[in-house]
Amino acid sequence: MENIVQTFHSGRLLTFHSGVDPPPFASLTMAAAPTAAVESLVVVHNVAKRHNVGTLARSATAFGVSEIIFVGRRDFNAFGSHGSTSHLRFRHFLSLSQAHLYLKEERDCDICGVEITEGAISVTHHPFKKSTAFLLGNEGTGLSEKECEICDFFVYIPQYGGGTASLNVTVAASIVLHHFGAWLPSSLGRLS
Questions:
Q1: CB 41 within 8 A of CB 68
Q2: Is-contact 176 114, C-beta < 8 A?
Q3: 3-state secondary structure at position 22
Q4: Which of 46, 59, 116, 164 has the least C-beta neighbours within 10 A?
Q5: d(CA 57, CA 42)
Q6: What CA–CA distance (Å, rounded) separates 104 from 118?
Q7: Where are the alpha helices (DSSP H) in 63-91?
Q8: What Rg do the C-alpha atoms of the chain give, in angstroms?
Q9: pLDDT value at position 36?
């Protein structure tokens, strides 16, 4: 009779047959399978420079974002995406309240505002608990009061040099999405 070992990795059940060494990320101690995959989503609302969305799509693909949600305008310039838009799901809502309802009721996501604000937690502390939708502010003005109201919590990106108060929206998204991905191994046994 053949011995089979199973483990979860990146939300997928992997099966290994006896006599075959599993990859180093495979935990041979079986844990309860997550009832649903933990995902990251990005909410695009009030981004002033539409070409930033193409580059954001590229980073979203690299860091495993499951969906980009557009609020208001649905058009964007795919410049900088390098074909990554074909690997993402997109959804559009006319209003922020519609997007909020979808994220909370249908996706059961926390909404994380990426903003330098009082009470924000350093992204290096990985304050994530479950699937998370990241809402990034406008390049010039940051998150609006209305956007802040729908956020469950806020993260900021520590800076170690002087000369600027903020980062480009796509750079900020990349850093935050990387940290979300880095949090996954410690919480779900995923490969970093």
A1: yes
A2: yes
A3: coil
A4: 164
A5: 9
A6: 24
A7: none
A8: 18
A9: 59
* Residue 23 near residue 48, CB atoms below 8 Å: no
Q: What is the pTM of this model?
A: 0.73
Give strand pairing partners of 8: 13
* pLDDT computed for residue 123 by the predictor: 96
Can you give the residue ranges of every domain in the chain?
40-188
CA distance linking residue 168 with residue 50, whole number of Å = 13
Q: Are 113 and 148 in contact (CB under 8 A)?
A: yes
Summarised one tens digit per residue, pLDDT across range 145-159 is 999 999 999 999 998
Fold (topology level) of 40-188: Alpha/beta knot (3.40.1280)
The pLDDT value given to residue 162? 78
Q: Which amino acid is at 117?
A: T
Residue 142 is predicted with a pLDDT of 83
- Amino acid symbol at 84: S
User: How many Cβ atoms from other residues are within 10 Å of residue 154's Cβ?
Assistant: 21
CB atoms within 10 A of CB 124: 13
8-36 burial, b at 16+ Cβ within 10 Å, e below that, comes to bbebeeeebeeeeebeeebeeeeeeeeee
Residue 162 corresponds to which tokens in the numbers above? 């002087």
Instruction: Give yes or no for a contact between 56 and 68, defined as CB atoms under 8 angstroms apart.
Output: yes
Alpha carbon 142 to its chain's center? 18
Predicted local confidence at residue 151, as pLDDT: 97
Contact 9, 101 (CB under 8 A): no
Low-confidence ranges of the chain (pLDDT < 70): 1-36, 46-52, 73-88, 185-192
